[in-house]
Amino acid sequence: MLFDLPDHPTLYAALLARDARFDGQAFVCVASTGVFCRLTCPARKPKAENCTFFATIGECLEAGYRACKRCHPLQAAALADPTIAALLHALDERPDLRWSEGHVEQLGYDLSTVRRSFKRQFGMTFLEMARQRRLREGFETLATGGKVITAQHEASFESASAFRAAFARLLGCAPADLRTDRRLRATWIPTPPGDMIAVSSRSHLHLLEFVDRKGLPAELARLQAASKEGIGIGALPPSDQAAAELADYFAARSDRFQTPLALAGSAFTQQVWDALREIPAGETRSYSEIARQVGRPAAVRAVARANGANQIALMIPCHRVIGADGSLTGYGGGLWRKQRLIEIERQLKAVRGPVTP
To answer: In the annotation, is 37 catalytic?
Structure first.
């Protein structure tokens, strides 16, 4: 886990020194390049503020980072499992291929064995790894002003229709509709529990959600409709601030979120959101406790609806609300992610003492 590692200054010093004692025990993710490396990597060293350290390769991949081509951090896992080695090599050799189960079978591998091996080593399947890499490369091309056809090729999609369909599923709109001159713009933020989409204007953050949230297309569609001109693509100051604050949060450097938020909801809904933001990191509350806090003790279901309507994940910490019996309840980002966030915050609290949300 992240918080089992030494602190950030210790790990950064080890990175600068290429300290072999940490090789395979810690990995550095570099926000400025989107790459993760061994601490012994010979590449030019990044600035400390661009570094986040993880204990496992799986955490790096889940956060959306690509493996460095100089220090090859996937090599240890590949050497431990010939099947993984062969498929990683095949993925590098054929980045243009839209990988499917059929391709894996054609190479002579058992699908269930491959699925288990990749899940065990990386926390994701081989096909998920291939798809994530393709989509992210396409998204980054669009975000830097590239044309849709260029992004399509960067993402290794043979047809424009397939590329548009993939983005439509992910973002709820076609990539041709994502321009860099819109008032609202979407950008991609990697985090340990998974990649996130942020939508902001020049002054406020309007949305922050995990890319695999089922309700994301509907949320984006509402923002599209409200903005009239649609959502563009690219980073703006609030999304840059959000990315920096999330990096600090997951690196246990800070638990404060000060990104200005654009909150659209009824007076009651915003009361509930305010109450959520008052829950300290490392603690939880029940829906009934929130209802009492906002002065509506009988409105437990209404509190649950307001909680579910939140579209600023983590910064408005709806993951800190649990059932009255202490059980996990519905979370749009997935119950496994809710459990992980609660565990991370409890560890953060244990390491740093009482914290302020």
So the answer is: yes
